[in-house]
Amino acid sequence: MTRTLRKPATVFKRRARNGWFHLRRQTPGKDDILAQPWLQPVRPYLSDDRLWALERQSVARGVAMGLFMGLLMPVAQILFAVAGAAVVRGHVPISAACTLVTNPLTVPPIYYAAYQIGEQVLPEAMDLTWLMTDATNWLGQGLNWAVTHGTPLMTGLLMLATASAIVGFAGVHLLWARR
Length: 179
Fold this sequence. Notes:
Helix content: 55-70%
Structural class: mainly alpha
Number of domains: 1
Number of strands: 0
Strand content: under 5%
Radius of gyration: 24 Å
């Protein structure tokens, strides 16, 4: 009795070791995502194939929108990034992924840098001490704190978000051209 030898499955072993192949196989596709019942109201806006295709312009717009919304919006970043990507015809999954630039480890340094930038850019911080008539006026004190510290923070966040969106857009174009 002769035994037949099988070919080693090197192709499959190589693919199994490749993390990108495994990740791609595990992630849901466009049709799986759009089949979710809670996406029914926005399905017509997200069903365009250009929003899901890996093209240079689409990816660059998606990166720019994701970085912009990820840095600017403190909550619901992914929702706003996907909506913005649909408006500017950017890549929706990449836009959602780029919002993850802000996470619990990166928020404190980003917000500190944004506050410092905002303080440098604004001519002089607004002072609303005239609203505080006495020490128990908590609403006036809270408003004063929000305006004196919130204005430089939001100004710095807007500047950081705009700069990161421009750098992300240009970076995708430069790196894609090298490929």
